[in-house]
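[job 4471] stage=fold_predict status=RUNNING
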Amino acid sequence: MKRHTLVLASTVCTAALALTASACSTSDDTVSGGGGAATSAAKDDGPAVDGGTLRIGLDRPFAKLDPAETGLTSMPMMILANALYDPLMVNGDNGAVQPYLAKAFTPNADATAWTLELREGVTFSDGKPLDAQAVIDHINRLAKPEAKCACATDAATIGAMAVNSPTSVGFTLKSPNAAFPSLFTRSLGYISEAPAGADTPAVGSGPYTVESVQPGVSATLVRNPSYWGAKGHADKLVYKVLPDVDSRYQSLRSGDADLIWTETPSQLKQAAGDGLRAATGPGSTSTVLFNTKAAPFDDPRVRRALQYAVDRSAVEKVVYLDQGKVSDGPIGSASPYRAAGDTSGYPAHDPAKARALLAEAGHPDLSFEYLVDGRPEGQQRATVLQQMFAEVGVKMTIKPLDAAGLGTAMFQRKFQVMDFITSMFGDTDTALASLYMPDAPYNFTGWNNPKAGQAIAAGRATVDPAQRARSYQEAAQEVVNDAPMIFLTENRTGFLASTKIGGLPDVSRRTVINVSPALLWVKK
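[job 4471] inference complete, writing structure tokens
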């Protein structure tokens, strides 16, 4: 599961080009705020200031500094990854995917072959060239089982790679994938050299290098003197792992941290009153997963009944305190594949229809166990759903699990119904292919709908953005109709910062929240 870009590229491709990445090219600006809104925000801070130390509170531990460590390229942790490793591709506004280290990523007519063109003159921090062979070596390393990278499933879609020139790589895919460049916004795209030892960081091309590190605890980074692009503003970056939500927020308020990640609605609502700044966007979606392989949830009538029982607006208001919005299907509100005004025909709250469907399916007194993690908003969301289901005669028992237990239950499909929050819907291509295809790595529900599968495959096989949008909309309607999951809310996630931090970008249109610390400065 990804808890899934740098706010870097200063030009955004048009919608049609962004969908295929076939003609996008990067700006000559090495690092910028990612568009007009972000540039304006930086101007409001006054001129950038170089020097000083930027202190960043991380929300989770890291095992190692290596793109092979999948957690390092999750949304909350890319603030660390971006300091050490530059990505080939980045996520822009409204789901666009655009080049960064790449100059262009171009497909053939049926999206079975792609050509990657690299920037010239880029080097790793040890001086070695980041060239076409380095890209291939990186992908091959992360694809090996011993790397233990979740990205191996993405690498496995590649049939062959070839060096066309020092700055050009040719990819031949095992099947068409018009969204292939999106695979390089995370681990596969953070090009690195293999670490020299088990306890040493992988070598990157980013604006900072490691001064010291305690895995799982802290890391101190300093400017990379040989960085190929514009240097970072801060002399030093100090990261500390602060996993407790409240303690992390208090560290920001007290001045012990300058910047933190948050997904907590109460903190987002409270931040302005506490004199804090925010860079947040619609970075996650709350849903409910059904195990469609086991009774009674192998019956779509039962799943649709619970869909009708949920008042999504009430969930948003009670749990997310009006900090998010209602979700109405797998194509998010900011997706370029979404039809204007589309709500995917999502069923409105209707307890009477819920009761009727349960009776028709032979489950008027349905009961089940609901798995959820221990976070306060998760518990509150479960409680709200429990009350809504009770109104239609359904008994839901809440079972909290730690993160490891929840992950095991999900991947082994040892659940009836469970809470699922993900950033995957920020990238529609990835979400549809990874969650709903029969053999997809993250098809936790076990759902198999031939019509949806055919539509998703058709979308992935065309480089025509309008045609792909139509195919994805058809698949999304099948998801909503057959209800392998209930969609609840789109949620704000991102960074909170003290007022002394300048350069905080506008990520309000970003479905993947990813900030480069090189953009930020500490005001004198």
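[job 4471] summary: The mean pLDDT is 89.
[job 4471] exit 0
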